Amino acid sequence: MHITITGATGFVGLNLCPYLTNKGHEVVALNLRESYSNDVFQQTDAVIHLAGKAHDTKNVDDANTYFEINTSLSQKLFDTFLTSPASDFIFFSSVKAAADKVNGILDEEIDPQPLTPNGKSKLAAEQYLQSKNLPAGKRLIIVRPCMIHGPNNKGNLNLLYKFVARGIPYPLAAFENERSFLSIDNLNFLIESIISNKGVVSGVYNLADDEVLSTNQVVRIIATSLQKTPRFLAIPKGLLFVAGRLGDILKLPMNTERLQKLTENYRVANKKIKRALGITRLPVTAQQGLAKTINSFRSE
Asked: Is 296:151 a contact under the CB 8 Å cutoff?
């Protein structure tokens, strides 16, 4: 199958492109920073739209930037797809297009109420794509992945790794939260399976590992990778919230937003995509995927 991918130089693209190639697909990267013609998809079977603006943890970017990149570019690309011979359009949205905070378990039936420019711009793109008439023989698959991780991926996991590696007791042990993650191996498997299985109908699908993990469990997995004994410190929650607000003011690494990410529950259901694919389990457990990511930090 001939597949065109945007955002091929990002973390997901750098992993997904060789995976698809190894599965026998022909993969071509499309750079949206350069102009492209209306017949760009003439030889394409599937379009995977990865390119987008991720969440700005420093909160320095203008909200319009998100809508220019995540919404407007997606609209233009999809309109080009609609008039092309290509049959599949896979749009990478985010669980943040549905909710920034989750009570219970997030599934695809939720009434989306994003709070951030990132989530709002992704939802606006979703709504535009779904509003268009889809010609016969075409599929629109909108995927909402939760936190993606894998070797060479930077972010909160890398910061947590450095924290544990230095032997510093984890100070947020008072929180027994549960979070969903998505290993890059499971993401690759799911996207290739969607492309290859025409029985997966158009719609919105959450992507997440089968199991949820608490941050305390993540700390234990990191410590095991480092052959260290995990160290925990249960600082009172009220004191931590005060420290987070102080971090906001002083621009410290531990601020309110990062504290929320490390301590909140954010459980994501993946039953819909597994049911569509006719599978009961993903190939990699959450623990296995996380251990692989953590072990990659050791080699850096």
From this structure: yes
Instruction: State the CB neighbour count (10 A cutoff) for residue 197.
Output: 12
Q: What type of residue sits at position 17?
A: C
Helices first, then strands: H and E counts in the chain: 11, 11
From the CA atom positions of the chain, what is the Rg in Å? 20
Is 300 exposed, middle or buried, given 0-12, 13-18 or 19+ CB atoms closer than 10 A?
exposed
Mean pLDDT of 247-251: 90
Beta-carbon contacts of 248 under 8 Å, excluding residues fewer than 6 positions away, are: 255, 256
| Residue range 198-240, pLDDT digits in tens | 999 999 999 999 999 999 999 999 999 999 999 999 999 999 9
Backbone φ, ψ for residue 95 (5° rounding): -60, -25
Between CA 204 and CA 142 the distance in angstroms is 5
**Can you name the residues that pair with 6 across neighbouring β-strands?**
30, 49
CA distances from 119 to 63, 70, 100, 191, 281 (A): 11, 9, 8, 21, 28
Domains of the chain, start order: 2-145 (3.40.50.720), 154-178+209-300 (3.90.25.10)
Q: At residue 232, what is the residue type?
A: F
Provide the residue count of the chain: 300
Contacts (Cβ under 8 Å, ≥6 apart) of 216: 170, 173, 175, 176, 232
If we measure between CA atoms, which residue out of 178, 183, 176 comes closest to residue 208?
183
Q: Where are the beta strands (DSSP E) in 44-192?
A: 46-49, 88-92, 105-106, 139-145, 147-149, 179-183
Distance between CA 27 and CA 135 in Å, rounded? Answer: 24
